[in-house]
Structures are given as structure tokens and as C-alpha cells.
Write a structure and sequence with these properties.
CATH class: Alpha Beta
CATH architecture: 2-Layer Sandwich
Radius of gyration: 15 Å
Strand order of the largest sheet: 1-2-3-4-5-6
Number of strands: 6
Number of helices: 2
Number of domains: 1
Largest sheet: 6 strands, mixed
Order of helices and strands: EEEHEEEH
Shape: elongated
Helix content: 10-25%
Structural class: alpha+beta
Strand content: 35-45%
Length: 132
Amino acid sequence: MHRLRQFNAFCNLSIDDWSGKLYPLYMTIVKGGLMNLTVRGIRYNPSDETRAFLDKKLQKLQFAEGYLHDLDIVITRETVGQGFHIDAKLHFSWGTIKMVSYDCYELYEGIELITDKIEATARKEKGKIKEH
């Protein structure tokens, strides 16, 4: 997956509103279209391997290049017990915002399932819009 150099994950940081901590912000190119992708962790710091796995799984969204502008993913480590809660917020070009989430014990399994939910939501939303 290609990344724009000025928005490299190691250079640009965003601030989480709840904790004030800095988290990497990066953009990813999805088959000719530009989608802003933000991945944040709460009580968890996403590793490079996690980001690479997420990038690989998000290649499913190539069909959404023209209308999915922003995708915000938050990975939260549960405080009680073990496991993760993953939230994804999809911002469409016509102003609609959709939210999907998933609870899991294994992070990589959760990433696979949340990307499936993101893909299904994007396809459903695309079906609602009529081309003029």
C-alpha cells in the first residue's frame, strides 16, 4: 500500500480528545482515490505489524474510492479481563456518517471482522445513493 510521504505515520501526530495523548495519523491511497485513515489506540499502542495487517485488510475498500473520504478506527483494550473493542467511523462524501463496532478477544480476528463490517456498511450505503 502506498503512503504519501508528508503524512507518514512517523511524522504526523494527532491528539486524542479524551486522554490528550498523541497518536499517529496517516493517509492511505485506495486504488486512485484518497481516503483519510486515522488509527488510534486507547490503553493500547498499535504496532507496525498491526497497522500493516490493517492496511492489507482495508484493500477490500477499493470499490469505495469515490465516496468514502474518512475512516477513523479506534482500538480499545478492555480494562477488565482481556480483549479489545474496535470502533470504526465511516465518513461519506455526501455527509453521512456511519459507525460500526466489534468486541473480540484476539486483535487480528477483530480486525478481520471489523473490515468485513466496514465493507458491508459501505456497500449498503452505496446502494442507497442513486447516480444522477
